[in-house]
Design a protein that fits this description.
Blueprint: H1 2-24, H2 26-31, H3 40-62
């Protein structure tokens, strides 16, 4: 069980790192997936994806601590 929890926390950490990269450098983050220049709207969607990823990561981080 300890290994599963360790992998789970590692996933949360990598999600938060990806979210930080997407928030700080959205053009570079989205540039990993497409080769053509990005419009402004796509960059904003990248930022909002990062915000959603932060929220989901924080919920995932709090989930194992709750006992039924």
């Amino acid at each position: 069980m300890r290994l599963v929890r360790t992998v789970f926390y590692f996933e949360v950490i990598t999600n938060l790192a990806s979210a930080a990269f997407a928030l700080l450098f959205p053009s570079a983050f989205l540039g990993q997936f497409v080769l053509e220049p990005l419009p402004v709207g796509a960059v904003e969607f990248g930022r909002w994806y990062a915000v959603l990823l932060v929220v989901l990561s924080l919920v995932s981080l709090a989930a194992p601590r709750r006992q039924p």
